[in-house]
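Help! Submission page says 'invalid entity' but I think these are all valid:
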Amino acid sequence: MSQKSFVWLCLLPLAVVTTAFFLLPMARLVVAGAEGPHGLAGYLAILTEGRYRATLFNTVLLAAATTVVTLIVATIAGMFLQRHRFPGRTVLIAMLTFPLAFPGVVVGFMIILLAGRQGLIGDLSNRIFGEKFVFAYSIYGLFLGYLYFSIPRVILTIMAAVQKLDVGLEEAARSLGASPWAVQRDVVLPALAPAFVASGAIAFATAMGAFGTAFTLATNIDVLPMLIYTEFTLAANFATSAALSVGLGLITWLILALARTFSGSAVAAAG
Amino acid sequence: MSTAGHGAAVRIEACGKTFADGTRALDPATLDIARGETLVLLGPSGCGKTTMLRIIAGLELPDAGGKVLFDGKDMTSVPIERRNVGMVFQSYALFPNMTVADNIAYGLKIRGVARDEQAARVAELVALTNIIGLENRRIDQLSGGQRQRVALARAVAIRPGILLLDEPLTALDAALRDRLRSELNRLLRALGITTIYVTHDQAEAMELGDRIVVMRKGAIAQIGAPREVYFAPKDRFVAEFIGAANIVEAPIENGMLILPGGRLPIEGAATTANVTVMIRPETIRVTNAGTEALSGVVDSISFIGDRQRIVVSGASSKPLNVDAPNTIQAKVGDRVGLSIAADALRLLPSEP
């Protein structure tokens, strides 16, 4: 057997799995999306129909906010954890990355325990202000949940990037007179840009498509995965849910591609 | 050169450094560096030279009691960003997200210097460091030698009182290192800034230093001009670290060093049971056997080009390394005479 055919043989399982469980269902989904009463125009509904468009807008906004806040929190925490040694550090890192193992349902459950009707925050606010703050069942609760499971994903990437930072760069900037803020702005953040793009993309894509948390919190939260679910199971509207699914995938991909292009020059320079 | 003739005098007083884990990196040391002087900190890795440089820079705090003074002003607790020092790192630490020109101008930008003044200064420095035409390059488009020049230009752009260089040539290959060494020497003389240069390469130290501080295991072994350190090393470590040295242990009788292969007149000592003597290989002359008081047998010959290294055994208790002119005809096994001037024998304190 030649070297080349051996390589092809090794790739065969991958090809089979990809075809059977990815390409074929995807193709079927794309076809199903166009099988509605409006045909191919069903695909445009996500943009033309007011309710869908508002949901799309909401979802993108939520995912973007999750990404930005996650990056800010994880960068500060990741930098501190990587640069300092203190007792309990490894335990803290383990705790911070613990949510990686949680399914969305559990995250949703935890949000309800925190900010639900019987939640901790409601209890406290009731005692202090005489009023229960309950926000678990809204998009704010969802935001908190997404934050909770995005942070570990991002923090690990940032920590690895911080570890690879040349401390000499910061020392050089300081020797030239840069204040600690200027060092962060001119040296550290540009050097971390590739890690921001990589981990931010994961946080964004996860927040766009996550379903378990939203489903646990409430069925009337206005995000695309929930809309797909209701169209599919409650309204049995296969064509629309298929079109929305394809749309969700395409739009997420498009936004990530744009983000990559815009940050491309910065990343290449920091490379 | 507008940068010429400025610089601060540096004094470090009883500066030691013990790290958090208890490692002693530097014993308390006191050192004066004159305005405009180039001082080289020389020693093997782990000798404390970089720690001393970082204390002067303000990147490390000396142990309690240590003081760093610039022109008599106590700078010990002043952070590096307000010490006005230019620093060149071994890795160069150039900012990868900026062009060559932006790197050089960074310190000026931070100081709020006007844009046209920044540009003028950058133009002046790229000319000085021979990197004209590279201003708009990214750092990853530069060769090692070019990076070294950019790092130097960036460090002197801010007109520092003190220039600190941490093994700036170590990352380069040998031929380039030699060329950049003489270029750096010319530049440092032209700038006239007080310079502290850390290296483990004695050739660099000799060429660049007005004075050399030889360090060993966190302590200063000797301070002196290059010639002084080379010809009159204070102890065996300095003798062996700087240049090649034959270390001979033998007794002295009536002003003569008694060796297995003969006797040599020696200065500065009467009868002593046992002394340690340093003989530089290039101070030994190979002659015909029988004409000299000292003789031995050629063990091996390595032809280096401009000279040959002949190893002669039997003359002293250990084989002697001799740097002979490349014209000398000798074969392995030949018996040869060795002539050594009395002042080439350097008595060293014997060590336990």
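Support: the input was valid. A stray whitespace character was the problem, and the output above is from the cleaned input. Chain B is about 25% helix and 35% strand.
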